[in-house]
Amino acid sequence: MLEIRYVWEWPVRITHWINALCIVVLAVTGIYIGNPFLLAPSPDAFVMGWVRFIHYVFAYLFTVSMVARIIWLFIGNQHASWKAFVPWAFSKGRENMWGTFKYYTFIEKKVPYVVGHNALAAAAYSLVFALFLVQIVTGFALYGQYQPGSFWDVIFGPLFGLFSSPGVRLTHHVVTWLLIGFAIHHIYSAWLMDIKEKNGTLSSIFSGYKFMNPEDLK
Amino acid sequence: MQKEQYQSPVEVSEDILQKWEARGVNRRDFLKFCSTMTAALALPVSFIPRIAEALEGDNRPPVIWMEFQGCTGDTEALLRANQPTAAELILDYLSLEYNETIMAAAGHQAEKAKYDAVEKYKGKYIAIVEGSIPMADGGVYCTVAGESALDVARKVCGSAAATIAVGTCAAYGGIPAAAPNPTGAVSISRAVPGATVINLPGCPLNADNLTAVIVHYLTFGRLPATDSFGRPRFAYGKRIHDNCERRSHFDAGQYAESFGDPGHRQGWCLYKLGCKGPQTYHNCPTVRYNEGTSWPVMAGHGCIGCSEPAFWDTMSPFYRRLPQVPGFGVEATADKIGLGLAAATAVAFGAHGVASALRKGDAHETDKVKEEE
Question: Domain A3-217: what homologous superfamily?
C-alpha cells in the first residue's frame, strides 16, 4: 500500500526555489558584469548600473535564503538535517553512496531505496553549499571594494591580501561555472530519479510529498 | 552668521611669503603649493596656514634617497614634479644628503656623505627607498660601493625616523619580484622589518603624493594614516574606478571593444580592454601626472593596476579582465573554459540520459504499475 510522506518541509521548498531563482539571476547578471555583451545605445542608459544593482539585490536575497537554510539544517526534519548532508559519516550513508554510485555507473541495476536525498546527491549538495559560501564570501568581498572601511571590506577585505583581488575575482567566475555545471547535473538527476524511482521526486519539491511503499524501505 | 564663516580668512603671514619670495618662489606659487598639499591630504582649508608655517620652520629634514633594483622612474617622476618645481621647493627645501642620480659627489666621497648623514642625524632623517631589495644568494644581485642593497638598507632605514618606499618595487617588490623572481626581490618593509615604512606604490609613484607625505610629516610630525597595505589613505583610499572620468560610460553600458574603434574614439569605458581601475586604489584620476596634464585612462589606455601588491603577476594579462587560468593556454579565459565545462557536463549527462532511458528493469515499483487500457 502506498503511503503519502511529507518529506520536504516548506522552508526547504521555499529556500530551494529562492536559491534557484537567485542562481539564474546572479549567473546571468554576473556574466554580463564580467563581460558586458550588450552595449548601450545612448549615454543616458544605465544598463551596467541596473545589472549591478540587480546582482547585489539578489546577492542579499541569496544570502538571507542560505542563512535560513543553514538554520533549518539544525531544526528541520531528518531529511533537511545536516546529518543527511554528511552521508560519509554514517555506515548506512556510505553504503547508500556506494550503491548509488554503482547505479549511476551502470554496475548495479537498482538504486538504493531512500525517502529523502539519495546519499550521493546529499554529498554533492554539501559541496554545493560550500561553493555557495565561497560565492557569498568572494562576492561580498568584491562588492566591498567600492568603500574601504565599509562593513564588507572589513569582514572580507583580508582575502585580497591572501589571494590578490584578481585572484578573488577569478574564483568568483570559476565557481559560477561550476555551479552552472551543477545545475545541469541537478536537473538531469532529478528527471532521471523521477522516472526510475516512480515516487514523485520532481513534484515533491513543489508539494513536499513523496509516495512510498513502506515495504520497500525494509 | 553664515557669511562670517565664509569670511574666516586663511592668512599666511607676510613674513613667510616674503622669505619665499627672497628664495625666488613667488607668493602666488607658494600659496598654490600649500593649497594643493592641503587638498591632496584631504585636510580642511584652515590647515593652509599651518602647512605654510610648517614649511617655514627651521626643520629641514635631511633625506637620504637610495636606489636599488629599480629603473630610476621614480626619481624621474620627482625631477619632473611641478608643485612648484622640484628644484624650487622639494630639493631646495629638503636637505638631500644623498641621491645617486642628482648628487654632485661621487665614489667614496658620496658614500662617506651618506654614512656621515646617518650618524649626524640618527633617528631624525627620512630615508627614501626606490627599487626592490634582492635577498637571494646573500644579496649579491645588487650592490652599491661593494655593499649589498640589504646591508645598506638595514643601516640607513634602521636608524631613520621614517622610510618612504617610493614606487611599486620598493613598496611590494614590483617587477623584479615578479615570478620567478630570480633575485629573491622583496619590498623594503620585508627586507628591514623593524623600519617605520610608508608605501607609495605606483609605476612610477606620483611625485605629488610624495610631496604631500613629506609635508604631512613636517606639519604633524608623523606619517599619514595608512591602509592594510601600508599606503597612505589620502592617496590610496579610493578606487581609480570611483573617480574615473569614464565612469558614466561604465554605468551606462558603453565600452570600447578595441583600441581605435568608434567607442574608444568617443572616450567610452575601457573595462573590456582589461582596465584594472575597478580593483586599483590610487588617486590618479584626481591628481593626475605631469603637472596634472593627464593619466593613463584619460590618454585612452586602461589602468594596469601598477600600484597594487604583486601587480605584475596578478594584474596581467593587462588587456583582459581576468588573470589566466593556470594550466590552460594563453587564449583560454576563465569564461571560455567555464562554457566548455558546462557544455561538456551537458553532453555527458545527455549521454547518460540516453543510456538510462534505454536501460530496462532498473526502475522501482515497475511491477506495481498498472497499464491503462
Answer: Transmembrane di-heme cytochromes, Chain C (1.20.950.20)
